[in-house]
Design a protein that fits this description.
heterodimer, A: about 170 residues, alpha+beta, five-stranded mixed sheet, B: about 575 residues, alpha/beta
Chain lengths: ~170, ~575
């Protein structure tokens, strides 16, 4: 069972990133209600939630692992596998759907041999979808490595991603 | 701090702004940013610095959404004693031309005195004026008429200051009369009077369900409890909708002011703003707004010197559509799985941590300061018999003009689609207007003259919803479109109740069968019956409304389904 003393102990791996979890947990006085906030900060810091991270959070907050896992898997924002070095999010909101987001996903899937939600085996590129990015006026929209671009076409998007990756490799 | 002092800050800011001959507003909200507004803003600043004019000639202001997102990045120039000019598609190059075209080059003599100058200087001026007119020539075709129906048919209450102020500067909101309603409420009105005023205004919940806001406040006010909560619902999960995000990003203080007035009215001492994790800018702006408000004594203990105290904090949603449902949202704030529960008890009696809780949508809260400032009567005269005030819509899909609009209730869909939206582009034909996202329905051309209000849209088999309005043209096959929404609901169903968890999957597989051309006429009948069952027996709004896209397309576009039958 977790004790008050253990709560202040750093993660045995010495990985500094665990401190982000500690800080959030402390901000909420290690209350069980803070679970979602702590998961959010872990996702932000690590980019995904490994089993080890979930166990650590379970210990810190004194929340059973089953509950931590239950909450984490309920929400879409949490992911459990690391993403590739480069990440493309295609918006599949209604406006983007009407304007051909499916064709963009199909083009990217074909170009990289992965389905939406997957990462290439070499860990270079991940393709995911979002329900709505809220830039509907510029549909269809995609985000490549954090920068948003609107009014995309399947051909242009696929070409652009391949060019960027090629430049990276060169 | 007393309000007089705060008001003074607003006056100072107003005076500071008035010193500039012109103010150049650059939209830097999400849509314009994805069109490249970051570079536009930089270019405007650099161009102004390059001209080297007197610093009172012009100021560049980073502001929020100006509405016409499809022509972004947008830049508006407001020159003293002149009509404002709006420019669309402003890339870096056009941005430089906008500055050159409007701001005179640094010279002791201005254009008006040109006649008295000696010949050589006159030539110089002539040359500069020539450059200016070339710039003007260049930007002319980027001018968007502010007299066009896109703007003239709108009535702005919620979005009143959006696109006019710098959302990160509290003084700018104060300069536009911000927090005056809160001060008035604290000084002159009893909590009961505030609830009465909101009730009399006819304001209804803008999250989609349309429950009278004043009534909700009265319920919570009447509850006996030491701890009451206010939650602002900013979990805008509806695909195709971004009204709440825009308000939170571009005028966070209006939301906060509404929340404070609500808290005073119901007797709450703390509250939460629940914001979608997908909206990092909104989270950041609200966070900054909370800090600024705390510093000015607008949040915390003895607000504006009164005995009203209130603390507010942010909770970040982690991407679950169902959390827009109030009981699910409450569980999510408590750090649990966001699964709805049976009502009653309603949150007004047993909400957050089992205490009486008001939950209102962002847009609803943003209406409140205007109602207090201008009176319930003023608000109630806008709109229809049952639906008062204005509604913000995110206009998207196959339209010439897409973006964010605020229209009076009672406007017809035809006006929105053809006047404001400019009709369907590329010579295609209008097919349907989809309101309410995955919970709403498709409205065909024949019903476009229906006034937009809660009841009329429900009668048509759709809903008002939170404000997503997506237009599809004749290239969209309606069964495919219905499948898109059902697919969304399958994904987003929380799995608690069987009608929704299993029913939505069954609806989808039956639709797949129809789309694949393997279904017979009996499948259509079964599909309809299944939809009715899911609608009537689901636990929460998600399941109860999930069949709407299928039912409404079956109602108006049945022939398309029938054509697909084997």
């Amino acid at each position: 069972m977790p004790t008050q003393a253990r709560k202040n102990e750093p993660h045995p791996s010495g990985d500094e990133r665990y401190r982000a979890i500690d800080l959030t947990a402390r901000k909420f006085k290690f209350e069980k209600d803070a679970l979602l906030e702590v998961l959010n900060s872990a996702q932000e810091t690590f980019g995904y939630l490994s089993r080890d991270i979930l166990i650590y959070i379970s210990n810190q907050l004194g929340v059973p692992m089953a509950q931590v896992y239950g909450v984490a898997t309920f929400y879409h924002l949490f992911t459990f596998d690391p993403l590739g070095e480069h990440h493309c999010i295609v918006c599949t909101g209604t406006a983007c759907h009407v304007k051909g987001a499916d064709r963009i996903i199909a083009a990217l899937s074909e170009a990289f041999g992965i389905q939406a939600g997957e990462t290439t085996p070499d860990g270079v590129f991940s393709l995911t979808t979002a329900r709505c990015l809220g830039s509907c006026g510029l549909a269809p929209v995609l985000v490549f490595d954090g920068s948003v671009s609107g009014k995309q076409t399947a051909e242009a998007a696929s070409r652009r991603v391949q060019e960027l990756l090629a430049r990276e490799a060169a | 701090m007393k309000f007089a002092k705060i008001e003074e800050l607003g006056r100072k800011e107003k005076a500071r702004q008035a010193e500039f001959k012109r103010r150049i507003f650059c939209c830097t909200s999400t849509a314009c940013l994805s069109a490249g507004a970051g570079a536009t803003h930089q270019a405007l600043k650099q161009a102004l610095a390059a001209i080297g004019c007197d610093e009172k000639e012009a100021e560049i202001v980073q502001t929020g959404c100006m509405g016409l997102c499809s022509r972004g990045p947008l830049v508006r120039v407001e020159t003293r004693q002149e009509d404002p000019v709006l420019y669309g598609y402003v890339d870096s190059e056009i941005a430089q031309a906008v500055v050159r075209g409007h701001v005179p080059v640094a010279e002791p003599a201005s254009d008006g005195e040109a006649g008295q100058e000696p010949a050589s200087a006159h030539d110089m001026l002539h040359f500069r004026a020539g450059r200016r007119s070339t710039a003007r020539e260049r930007i002319r075709k980027h001018v968007i008429s502010l007299a066009s129906p896109f703007f003239s048919k709108q009535v702005k209450i919620v979005l009143n200051e959006v696109g006019q102020i710098d959302p990160q500067v509290i003084e700018d909101y104060l300069a536009h009369g911000g927090y005056r309603a809160l001060a008035r409420v604290l000084e002159e009105m009893s909590p009961e009077q505030v609830c009465d005023e909101i009730l009399a205004s006819g304001l209804r919940g803008r999250g989609g369900a349309g429950f009278p806001t004043g009534q909700k406040w009265h319920y919570v006010r009447g509850e006996r409890s030491d701890r009451k909560f206010v939650i602002v619902n900013g979990d805008e999960g509806d695909p195709g909708a971004y009204m709440d995000r825009t308000v939170m990003e571009d005028n966070p203080h209006r939301v906060l002011e509404g929340m404070l007035i609500c808290a005073y009215a119901v007797g709450a001492s703390s509250g939460y703003l629940y914001i979608r994790g997908e909206y990092p800018i909104a989270i950041d702006r609200i966070r900054k707004a909370l800090i600024a408000a705390r510093r000015k004594g607008l949040l915390g203990r003895s607000i504006l010197g009164s005995d009203f105290s209130f603390t507010a904090d942010i909770r970040i949603g982690a991407g679950a559509f169902v959390c827009g449902e109030e009981t699910a949202l409450i569980y999510s704030v408590e750090g649990k799985r966001g699964m709805p529960r049976m009502r009653p008890p309603y949150p007004s009696t047993s909400g957050l941590w089992d205490q009486p809780t008001v939950i209102n949508n962002v847009e609803t809260m943003a209406c409140v300061p205007s109602i207090i400032n201008h009176g319930a009567g003023w608000y109630a005269q806008i709109g229809t018999e049952t639906s008062k005030g204005t509604k913000v819509f995110a206009l998207a899909g196959q339209l010439k003009n897409t973006g964010l609009i605020e229209v009076p209730m009672g406007i017809t869909l035809r006006e929105i689609v053809f006047d404001i939206g400019g009709g369907v582009p590329n010579g295609r034909a209008f097919k349907a207007a989809q309101t309410g996202g995955p919970s709403g329905g498709c409205i065909p051309e024949a019903h476009l003259d229906t006034p937009v209000d809660y009841e009329s849209l429900t009668t048509l088999g759709s809903i008002m919803g939170s404000g997503g309005l997506v237009i599809v043209d004749d290239q969209t096959r309606m069964p495919d479109f219905a499948r898109f929404f059902i697919d969304f609901c399958v994904d987003e169903s929380c799995g608690k109740c069987i009608p929704c968890r299993v029913g939505t999957v069954q609806i989808r597989s039956r639709l797949d069968k129809i789309i694949a051309g393997e279904a017979g006429p009996q499948d259509l009948v079964k599909l309809e019956a299944l939809c009715q069952r899911v609608k009537t027996s689901s636990l929460c709004g998600l399941g109860q409304s999930a069949p709407n896209p299928v039912l409404s397309t079956l109602r108006y576009f049945r022939d398309e389904y029938e054509e697909m039958l084997a």
